[in-house]
Structures are given as C-alpha cells and as structure tokens.
Design goal:
The protein has 228 residues and is of the alpha+beta class. It is built from 6 helices and 14 strands.
C-alpha cells in the first residue's frame, strides 16, 4: 500500500476530532428503508421500524445494524455516498463477502445494535497486529466490515480524508485454516489506478496488510452488541 508508514515506533498521538453523534434509531431505520437496504436483507419496513422502536427505548448513541448473513458488504457498498458518488469495493477484493466475523460474537438475530462506537484515530499508524491486543485489553471489540459500512451510511462524517478506519473484526480464513493477511478497511478513493478518476472522493472498501501501518487509518471498535 502506498500510504504505509516506515516509522519504527507506534504512534500514540490522539486526534482531537470528534465524530458527530448518530441519529436516533428510528431515523436510522428510515434511512435504511430510504436506501432499500431492508429489501436486500429480506426484512420488511414494519419489522425494521418495530425493532428500532424497541431498541431505541433504552436511549444512548447506538448503531442499527443488519446481520452480515442477511446483507453482505458487496451489497451494502453501493448505498454509501460521498459528494454524490456511490461507494464501491476495490477491484482486487472480489472475495470481500468471505471476510467473516473473527473473534467477535454477534447476536443470532437479523437486526442488532452496536454501542460505544469509536473510530480509533488514536491508533493511526498502528498495524492491525498491534491494534487488536490493545483493543482487547481496553474491553473493546473491533468492528466488522458491514458494521463499519452501516456506520458511514448513517453518519457520513465518520469517514474523513486522513481519518478513515479499518474493520479488523472481519477476517478471511483460508482453506488450510490460516487467516488471510489482508484486513478490510473503509476509506476515500483518490481516483487513481483501477479505481478510475470518476471515482475520486467516493467511499471505498479495500484492504491492507495485517502487519502494515497507515498514518490515515484508525481502528473502528465498539463496546457492545445486542438485540432489542
């Protein structure tokens, strides 16, 4: 990756930028309905609204998520939008939907909420290999790729140039049982290479190496997941 840092030590500089709060869960449900994401998942608008209403009674800044088993990252990506340009998956990640939860337990339901979201700016210039144990020690769980996409769908300001994020809760396991060295991330295209100039500034699902650092990628995480 061209933005890999060659720094010999892990950056511990925290960003002062605060990501705006999420809309209420009822508004998030309407957003998914507006984008027809519920149809991709085979969930009725009424079911989605009812879940958001029940889960929203507890209050708090939480994210409404559809289980990745119901709607994968490749189907969600085009619903992302930035400066009028739809999101996309990089050309060399045709197996994006095979990246599954790894070390993350999900509710056994079509819909759930994620709480305590953090973009992980403080971990910019860390490698995934370095970030995962640190998040675990803090009692935090890395986001799945689909959860990260839902976050940007509901709060586009969560994705900024030079402050994008990895979603290392999703990993690809090879046929021999070993984990693929790629780790998924969401950032903003520069319109170079196979992305194409027409995609400059579009939201982009791509990947980085497990052992590499990037000054512009944090590590998105959460404190909890649950049902209504």
């Amino acid at each position: 990756m061209s933005d890999t840092s060659s720094a010999s030590s892990v950056s511990s500089v925290s960003s002062a930028v605060v990501v705006p709060s999420l809309p209420p869960l009822a508004a998030q449900a309407e957003r998914l309905i507006e984008l027809a994401v519920h149809e991709l998942a085979g969930i009725s608008a009424e079911e989605l609204r009812a879940f958001a209403d029940a889960a929203g009674r507890e209050g708090g800044d939480a994210l409404l998520v559809i289980h990745p088993g119901r709607v994968p990252a490749s189907a969600l990506a085009p619903s992302l939008s930035r400066e009028g340009k739809p999101g996309f998956v990089v050309a060399d990640m045709e197996d994006v939907d095979q990246f599954a939860p790894c070390g993350v337990e999900l509710p056994d339901e079509a819909l759930y909420v994620v709480s305590g979201l953090d973009r992980g700016d403080r971990m910019a210039n860390w490698s995934p290999e370095e970030a995962l144990p640190a998040l675990t020690e803090e009692g935090r769980s890395p986001l799945l790729l689909t959860e990260g996409v839902h976050w940007v769908l509901q709060q586009p300001a969560a994705l900024e140039r030079n402050r994008c994020f990895m979603t290392i809760g999703s990993r690809l396991r090879k046929a021999n049982g070993a984990l693929d060295a790629r780790t998924p991330a969401i950032w903003i295209s520069n319109g170079t290479g196979r992305d194409g100039r027409e995609r400059r500034d579009a939201p982009k699902i791509g990947w980085c190496w497990w052992g590499n650092r990037h000054t512009w990628l944090g590590f998105a995480s959460a404190t909890g997941r649950g049902g209504a």
